[in-house]
TrEMBL record:
Record key words, sorted: FAD, Flavoprotein, NAD
Family, as annotated: Belongs to the class-I pyridine nucleotide-disulfide oxidoreductase family.
Domain of life: Bacteria
Protein name as it appears in the record: NAD(P)/FAD-dependent oxidoreductase
Amino acid sequence: MTETQSTHTEATAYDVVVIGAGPVGENVADRTRAAGLSTAVVESELVGGECSYWACMPSKALLRPVLAQADARRLPGLSAAVQGPLDTAAVLARRDSFTSGWKDDGQVRWLEGTGADLYRGQGRLSGPRTVTVTGPDGDRRVLTARHAVAVCTGSRARLPGLPGLDEVRPWTSREATSAHSAPGRLVVVGGGVVATEMACAWQALGSRVTVLVRGERLLGRMEPFAGDLVAEALTEAGAQVRTGTSVKSVTRENGTVVVLTDTGDRIEADEILFATGRAPRTDDLGLETVGLEPGSWLDVDDSLRVTGHDWLYAVGDVNHRALLTHQGKYQARIAGAAIVTRAAGEPVRAEDWGAHAATADHAAVPQVVFTDPEVASVGLTLAEAEQAGHRVRAVDVDLSSVAGASLYGDDYRGRARMVVDLEDEILRGLTLVGPGVGELIHAATVAVAARVPVDRLWHAVPSYPTISEVWLRLLEAYRDA
């Protein structure tokens, strides 16, 4: 692989051109190169993308000491030793190590090992199967694709249209995960995953956190009890959680952020984080040259091919199917296989659960929210299953009733819900809330994706005494209902 630069415009042909070198683009390139297709990868920032430097890795590095301390405080014999504050500087230093100091040398070496060519600069479509790359020094290269162009540019934080917001210099998810000190007071606007995780992290790292949630509860897209339990824990940790509250205006006066809410409250802080959704990174992508709307999400079929364009793929956040790194990488594996198969002139297997269909995006998306308590889910919530027309029954279990939970920590609080399809006798979804549940969700993912019958799950015996015994409790509750 070479980092290609040029002093004049020239055209270079490849089998595949990938725009975006985050985990999604890397995986597309890995699959196409493994099959022998020549591949170019274009990246305007750091190879490794949002996940490596401003999202998954740094945020979880911030949260891991927070959760470890919370677990330790639940154990007699250990709790007294961990009552003091976290060493914020040490936590931030470890976070920095996971981002490699925001340098991408290691990721470049990995991409180099696949045999793909890396082009640094802004990649834009300039017609069918054509990408023009403008390098950091203004040089232009034209790349053509014999078989496919894959758009893997991801998403960015979406800020509300409040007057003067730019002058306030608000945090987005990027600043929240890369900050080099804990603000004394932090206002978090939003109630989703970024909002709850960053509220949990910075409260534990020394900030006084206020969370402003427009809706009725945190984590509004998950089972209702998930957001309620997280809000309860945040409040006990010292944060303020205000639901049913919208921001009316924000200003920065002499360095202090002043927030006025629609309820008439005035809140002062040192920093404000807006975690109010995501927007596609497609506004400067040249979509208009191929009949698509700049700044839009890209509609795709289950093989990740853009509607109406047999050569164009949109993989990861940019298609708005499931904005999670692991789902984007899953889509990349599917798209890569589809590109290779079509390049060979062979038929694709696009039926549900086929080799070239990202069916899990519809039926079996897993997610972990790394708050205290953790929230883990896969598949449909009860409300989603009912809205989809399934005849279902929800079964709830108090996780503290499981022996493994009691051993995990004193005063363990948590809950589990299993959503069962009464027609097919399979699981449509499962949600777990409680310390340590993130490592349990893959078992549920297998059950949902594989459509394992409930009567067969009786024969999947959970080890004693583990929190996984919740499976037995859920099945018993379903049988006895």
